[in-house]
Structures are given as C-alpha cells and as structure tokens.
Amino acid sequence: MGRTYIVEETIGQYLSNLSLQGKSFVSGLLIGQCSALKDYVILATRTPPKEEKNENLKHPKDQLDNLDEEWATEHANQVSRMLPGGLLVLGVFIITTLEMGNDFQNTLRRLVFAVEKSMNKKRLWSFTEEEVSDRVTLHICSSTKKILCRTYDIQDPKSSAKPADWKYQNGLSTSWLSLECTVHINIHIPLSTTSVSYTLEKNTKNGLARWAKQIENGVYLINGQVKAEDCDLLEGQKKPRGNAQASSFDVRVLTQLLLNSDHRSTATVQICSGSVNLKGAVKCRVYIHSNKPKVKDAVQAVKRDILNTVADRCEILFEDLLLNEIPEKKDSEKEFHILPHRVFVPIPGSTVMLCDYKFGDESAEEIRDHFIEMLDHRIQIEDLEIAEEINTAFLSSSMNSEAPLDDRDDEQPKEPMQTTIVLKIRQNMGMIAAFAVALLAVGISFHYFSD
Question: Mapping DSSP to helix (H, G, I), strand (E, B) and coil, where does residue 407 land?
Fold first, then answer.
C-alpha cells in the first residue's frame, strides 16, 4: 500500500484556479510535513514563469522535455529558506493539457530528484535512516481534472514510481503545534593557513559544519523539562480541538563540549591566518502536526531550524556581497557584516507561519513582494512579524594573524549567560591551541542559551 497525503482543502481550489495561460504546462512545489504513516500538505506554490528569449518551440512535447530544471530547483532552494522547522518541500506538481498524455512522468521523476539533490547540498544536517524518504509527484490534467499521485524514494536513484493516495481535508492548516526558542550564538571559526586559498564563504561553511555537531549533541528543554524521546509531546497538556489555537512550547537549548572517549585532555595545533566570528541572537520556530507528535520529532525539527536559519542568513549575506560586488578584505583590517533579520508571515487561513530574511535597508513592501513571487499567495504588510532578535546576529572576519581568537567586539552588548563555563582560545605567535577538556563531573552544563 502506498503513502497517504492529507492535503489542505484550499490547495485543491488553488490548483484548479491555476491557469496555463496558453502554455502546455505549469509546475510547482508541494510543502508540508512527513510522518511515519502519512504526510501532510499545507501549501502548493507555482514556480514563477521565466522570461523566455525564444518561444518558437513547436510542440508541447518539446516544451515539456525542455522543462527548465535549473530554474525549478532554484525556486525550491529559495522556498526552502522560507520554511520554519518541521516543514519541507515534499515534492512537485505539474498541470498539463490533455494532449500531454503520459509524457509527463519521466519529467516529473527527473524534477523531483533534481529538487531534492539541490536542497540537500545546502543542509548542515542529514536525514536519518528512520525518516521517510519518499517524495511525491502530482499530475493534474487541466481538461479532465484527473489526478495522478505517485512517490519516489529519493534515497534510491533507481527507484520506480509507487502509487499514493491524495486526500483533501478541511481545516488541516489549523491542527499544528508550535515550538519557539531564541538562541544566542557565538561561533568562532579559525582560518588555518591550509585554507587561506578558500573564499570567506567556503571557510564559513566549513566552520558551521563543525558547529552543527554541538547543536546535534545539545540538550533540549521543552517548557523547562527534559523529556524522553519517545514521550508524547502533548503529555500532560490538553490537545487542541477543531479550530482552537494550537499549543505553543518554549524550548531552551544547552550545548555541550564533545568529550573524548578516554576522558583525557587533548590539544590540536594549527597555523592561523585569521578568524571569522558569528555572534548574536537568532529566533527559531518549529511547527509539528498535532496527530500524536513525539518529543524526538519536535527536538529534531528544532535542531534543524537552528542550523537552517544560521546557514541561510550567511548564504544570503554572501549573495548580497556578491551582488553588490563588495570584495573580501585581504589585509588585517576587521570587517563586520550584519546578518539579516528573520521575518514571519502567516499562511492565509492557517496557524502556521512561513519566514523570510530582511536586511536593515529593505522595506516591508520588498519583503511582501518576495513572498508573493516565491509562494504565489497574497499577504498583507501588516501581517509581517519581524522576529525579536534584540542583538542582531553579525559576522566579523579578520585576516590579522596576531588578533586573539577570543576577540570580542566591545561595541556589541554582551548577553548574560547562566551556568556558563567558558573555554577561552588564544592565539600566540600565529599558532592556535584548541583544548577540548574532558570533565568527569555529572550534571555540568555548558553554554546555556536562554530566551
């Protein structure tokens, strides 16, 4: 038996209203959440049309075979940034004319694998073996309104199509739980001489990959409590009914130093050419469907949202620097860049909010227009919610090999930290000694981030 997709009823109306406008097909993305037994689809969005320089293709088949995968995957990458923790691009849809026949299936298969491969390259995390690896393809005939729903295992490039059920349900978008936390980051990335030829962007990405291990191995408190992974997330709470406001959970994060297996202190030494620092506060938000959610699913979604929002902000910053042709500094002068703020906006008629990122000089109108372009849904400026990130995250870089690695910018307000043990790393004569201290005491917490 194939997978079942529970779909918000308004999506059916949205897909029915999409006009081909004289074209042979329209394609787009399906957004929602996976679970062990079924998947939930809460949004569909058409891929924006691309201005074609040459539209003299004669046959619909030719146009379908030449579907621009690069354009579609770039749209998927942009949309994936706008998804809070717990939500994913679940697959793709295509609406075609009756004359298309069965020619669409190979195109859909190719597209769904290309989309997933492109998004996976940018992630700081990996899917677990227990997670659902099926992605959906949906074909709708514009003339007969017939629907064909199939899935592919994206972990297996040779997988064949499997039939799936596509079922509409009213009020699906209101049945979600939300979890929130504010994480104060202070990520130090040394630039070794062996990586001096790398761009600042590549060095930053490599450093974030190491930081991701701390987030993965952290301790997560839900409403101030550590809960067993297999525990029901709603244990001790009343489950929301009907269209009632879903429950909201406060999450606090404790990250720990990775301890050496033999409990001995170790040190590594490398020659340093400079450093990159990421400091500030980031707002994280997660949505979990309220059908028997587990603690492990919520915690996993929180981890991924933390990793995604930091990585996405850095990527957006580097794109902005490239777009404005701001060169990287090669001398000893320190360089500062403010990372963009997170902005949330509700899906119309839903308790779920999506997000985008806003630089200080961008207007609310620009953010609204970007939402409309990427998600093909009208939103109101007054619905934009700028995340309360009091100390905006910023990135600083220095190529001065004589600067201390724990160099703190005195102009930046310092956040109070509770139950904190600080491991200071100093640079001496161009050398870095990074000590990972193994502590035997039980119950010691490291770097407690509070909201």
Answer: coil
How do strand 448-449 and strand 162-163 relate by DSSP bridges? unpaired
CB 250 within 8 A of CB 180: yes
* CA pair distance 60, 4, nearest whole angstrom: 31
Say what the pLDDT of residue 59 is.
47
Mean per-residue pLDDT over the chain, rounded: 79
Angstrom CA distances, 323 to 199, 327, 364, stand at: 16, 11, 21
Q: Could you report the per-residue pLDDT of 15-70, keeping only the tens digit for each?
A: 999 988 778 889 999 999 999 889 999 999 999 988 765 555 444 444 666 688 99
% residues pLDDT > 70 (the chain): 75
Choose among 163, 209, 199: nearest CA to 318.
Answer: 199
DSSP-derived letter for residue 53 is S
What's the average model confidence in pLDDT over 375-404?
A: 76
> One-letter amino acid identity for 43?
L
What is the CA angle 32-37-39, rounded to 5? 15
* Cα Dmax for the chain: 74
Taking alpha carbons only, the member of 3, 10, 30, 45 closest to residue 377 is 45
Distant-in-sequence, close-in-space partners of 358: CB < 8 Å, separation ≥ 6: 340, 341, 342, 343, 367, 386
Full-prediction pTM beyond 0.90?
A: no
C-alpha closest to that of 237 among 252, 229, 225: 225
Among 412, 435, 422, residue whose Cα is nearest residue 277: 412
Tokens 């101030």, located at residue: 224
Q: Tokens 């709470």: give the residue.
A: 237
Residues 421 and 445: their CA atoms lie apart, in Å, by 8
Q: What ranges in 234-352 are assigned the alpha helix state H?
A: 295-323
Banded pLDDT at 440 (limits 50, 70, 90): very low
- Alpha-carbon distance of 60 to 96, in angstroms, equals 9
CA pair distance 150, 109, nearest whole angstrom: 10
Whole-angstrom Cα distance, residue 112 to residue 129?
20
Helix (H, G, I), strand (E, B) or coil at 433: strand
The residue assigned the tokens 């995968």 is: 69
Q: Which amino acid is at 440?
A: L
